[in-house]
């Protein structure tokens, strides 16, 4: 894969299975250079393979499909090139989609009521005078913000305290009826405010300063569950809890007000209305102890009572949306050794793995005994299949356009063993040809995250350019148990550094086509941290790339959106502990030519982290460059504008061409200069 082929990279959403069990709908989106945005539509995929999939919408960006429980209506989010996502509905058999919201800041998530007549949705509500609520008052002319809380902004969103996410319930209009018309002239004057627009009114359910997320109806339709941090002292921890509010409006109540601090993520009532499933991380007594905490699946009676943990919290990390399955069960995802499994649980603790390694499950939707599943694997960024009698039958080929133009290289899975006997698991993606190939040791972010064996555009682009790409999950990563993830708490840059070097040495022995004299190192976020730490101790690398790095825990505290708690939990809270694990503290030992990449709107690892690291390298005479992206945040490499994502790849390959040339990537090939 080449950088210019990004528009061929389709991403597939979680599926929406039709209640009649004949088909599922997914959103298929892709980067588009002409629009410099992500575009996509909805596709209907029959479970009968004799009937081909077909595109059923023509919006600019249509996402998040969901059928009404009776199967008559399909709801989804549609965004225009300049607008925010709004909730739309269309008859399930086809027709003209109708917008049913006009939220100033758009709609982020929604869920159907059991009666198929109502939808609950979440939308950020801006304070008066902010975000365009007053004509002629732009962002630079707004009133100042008086900040008194720890939690007031978030990467990708900016300030959040002045636009909390609230919940609304809206009645879905009858789609078969004659469409409403906006009165004009005398008729409009006579009707006054009633003639404001075509969308039906929505009833706001929640209020206050907290974000209200993950809404879902109870099975009787009388209540709405949601997740929020409404407890006393919520600004001093990162805990959140389950709440319930009457669907017609009223006072919200906490379902587990006396529970130990947890970060709740998803809530789902069983089909029989007897059980409430939810996922949550335990956070210790202070509500901040999040390091390497696996997310667990719990169940409790809807009528109230004790919550029981269903998953193995030491070895399973549960994520994604919960999907009711059967009478008293649920489907959930589990991150495991570089894959994401689909697992079924029942309220009594019964469990079965439905989809396992090597696939990476994206989402699932159940209808009776059928389960529609979207997933990625080594050869595809996302496909849809249906699970029948224990087998996943693949129904789509959304990767065909990319595969027709580019060779997709299979990753080689292997495990290296260090001098302390610890196994380090990961993959190598090798270019075509006998070699010797220069090597890129890549390090993922997190640190409590994982590389997987699924298709990864970064590895494919670098391998196409002639580099052998190494990806491993050192201690500190997710997917291998809490002990593995927690091994670097208050000792970052120790066993994690040892593990990535172990993996590099193991790969050089396992794959003779790799050139052990031509090695580069790169990583983003925590990967940027560990790259900067390694080159402060090891001088074997020809060059390095440090991207959006966590580079100085001392200045990170207070400047990052999570800086008030993150560094203290990972490195320890004292200045001495922070400095002992800080790449800035060892920057004077760096001799490796280093490209620093950062985004100007990065609130997770603020741009000062990269700027100060670059300045320190320059001050001591190390060859260095700083690549800054305007308008982008911490997610540049994953969801930045397509134009910037292509430029990022081009600049990275130019850097490697200069310092680590390959047969397919040299200064002459790329047009690079040595200036």
Structure in words:
The protein is of the alpha+beta class. Helices cover 16% and strands 34% of the residues. The protein contains 13 helices and 39 strands. The strands form 9 sheets. Strands 32-33-35-34-36-37-38-39 form an 8-stranded mixed beta sheet, with helices on both faces. A hairpin with a 5-residue loop joins β20 and β21 (275-282). The radius of gyration is 26 Å and the shape is globular. The protein starts with 10 loop residues before the first strand and ends in a 5-residue tail after the last helix. Mean pLDDT is 94; it is low at 671-675.
Features:
single chain, 675 residues, alpha+beta, eight-stranded mixed sheet, five-stranded antiparallel sheet, 13 helices, 39 strands, disordered C terminus, protease, WD40, 6-blade_b-propeller_TolB-like, S9 family peptidase, hydrolase
Please report the distance between the alpha carbons of the first and last residues. 28 Å
> Could you estimate the helical fraction of the residues in percent?
10-25%
What topology, given as strand order, has the largest sheet?
32-33-35-34-36-37-38-39
Radius of gyration: 26 Å
Overall pLDDT level = 94
Tally of alpha and pi helices = 13
- Broad structural category: alpha+beta
Task: Please give the number of β-strands.
Answer: 39
Keywords: Hydrolase, Protease, Serine protease
Protein name: S9 family peptidase
Pfam families: PD40, Peptidase_S9
InterPro entries: 6-blade_b-propeller_TolB-like (IPR011042), AB_hydrolase_fold (IPR029058), Peptidase_S9_cat (IPR001375), WD40 (IPR011659)
């Amino acid at each position: 894969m080449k950088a210019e082929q990004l528009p061929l990279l389709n991403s597939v959403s979680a599926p929406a299975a039709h209640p009649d069990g004949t088909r599922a709908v997914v959103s298929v989106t892709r980067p588009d250079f002409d629009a410099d945005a992500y575009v996509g539509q909805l596709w209907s995929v029959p479970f009968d393979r004799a009937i081909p999939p077909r595109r059923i919408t023509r919006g600019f960006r249509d996402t998040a499909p969901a059928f009404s429980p009776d199967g008559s209506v399909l709801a989804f989010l549609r965004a225009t090139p300049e607008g925010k996502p709004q909730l739309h509905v269309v008859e399930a058999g086809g027709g003209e989609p109708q917008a049913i919201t006009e939220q100033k800041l758009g709609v982020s998530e929604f869920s159907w009521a059991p009666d198929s007549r109502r939808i609950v949705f979440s939308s950020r509500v801006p304070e008066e005078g902010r975000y365009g609520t007053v004509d002629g008052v732009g962002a630079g002319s707004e009133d100042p913000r008086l900040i008194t809380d720890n939690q007031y902004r978030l990467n990708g969103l900016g300030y959040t305290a002045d636009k909390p996410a609230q919940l609304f319930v809206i009645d879905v209009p009858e789609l078969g009826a004659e469409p409403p018309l906006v009165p004009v002239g005398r008729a409009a004057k006579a009707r006054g405010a009633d003639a404001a627009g075509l969308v039906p009114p929505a009833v706001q359910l929640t209020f206050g300063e907290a974000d209200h997320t993950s809404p879902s109806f109870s099975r009787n339709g009388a209540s709405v569950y949601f997740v929020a941090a409404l407890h006393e002292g919520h600004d001093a921890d990162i805990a959140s809890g389950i709440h319930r509010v009457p669907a017609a409006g009223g006072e919200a109540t906490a379902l587990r007000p006396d529970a130990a601090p947890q970060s709740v993520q998803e809530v789902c009532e069983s089909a029989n209305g007897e059980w409430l499933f939810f996922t949550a991380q335990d956070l210790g007594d202070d509500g901040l102890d999040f390091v390497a905490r696996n997310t667990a699946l719990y169940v409790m009676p809807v009528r109230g009572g004790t919550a029981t943990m269903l998953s193995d919290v030491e070895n399973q990390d549960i994520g994604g949306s919960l999907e009711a399955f059967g009478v008293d069960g649920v489907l959930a995802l589990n991150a495991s050794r570089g894959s994401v499994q689909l697992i079924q649980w029942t309220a009594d603790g019964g469990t079965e793995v439905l989809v396992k390694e090597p696939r990476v499950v994206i989402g699932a939707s159940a209808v009776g005994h059928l389960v529609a599943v979207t997933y990625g694997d080594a050869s595809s960024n996302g496909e849809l299949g249906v699970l029948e009698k224990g087998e996943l039958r693949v129904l789509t080929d959304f990767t065909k356009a990319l595969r027709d133009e580019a060779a997709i290289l299979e990753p080689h899975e292997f495990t290296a063993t260090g001098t302390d006997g610890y196994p380090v698991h990961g993959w190598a993606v090798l270019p075509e040809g006998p070699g010797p190939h220069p090597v890129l040791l890549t390090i993922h972010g997190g640190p409590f995250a994982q590389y997987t064996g699924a298709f990864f555009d970064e590895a494919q682009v670098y391998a196409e350019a002639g580099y052998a790409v190494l990806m491993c999950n050192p201690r500190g990563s997710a997917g291998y148990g809490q002990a593995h993830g927690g091994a670097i708490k208050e000792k970052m840059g120790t066993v994690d550094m040892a593990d990535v070097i172990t993996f590099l040495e193991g790969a050089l022995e396992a794959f003779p086509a790799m050139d052990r004299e031509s090695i580069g190192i790169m990583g983003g976020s925590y990967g940027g941290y560990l790259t900067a730490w390694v080159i402060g101790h090891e001088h074997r690398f020809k060059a390095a790339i440090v991207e959006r790095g966590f580079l100085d825990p001392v200045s990170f505290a207070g400047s990052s959106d999570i800086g008030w708690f993150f560094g203290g939990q990972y490195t320890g809270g004292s200045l001495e502990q922070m400095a002992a694990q800080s790449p800035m503290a060892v920057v004077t030992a760096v001799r490796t030519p280093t490209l620093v990449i950062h985004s100007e709107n990065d609130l997770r690892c603020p741009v000062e982290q990269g700027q100060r690291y670059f300045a320190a390298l320059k001050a001591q005479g190390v060859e260095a460059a700083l690549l800054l992206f305007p308008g982008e945040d911490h997610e540049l490499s994953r969801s930045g504008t397509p134009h910037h994502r292509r430029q990022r790849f081009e600049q990275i390959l130019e850097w490697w061409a200069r310092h680590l040339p390959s047969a397919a990537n040299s200064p002459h090939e790329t047009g690079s200069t040595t200036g």
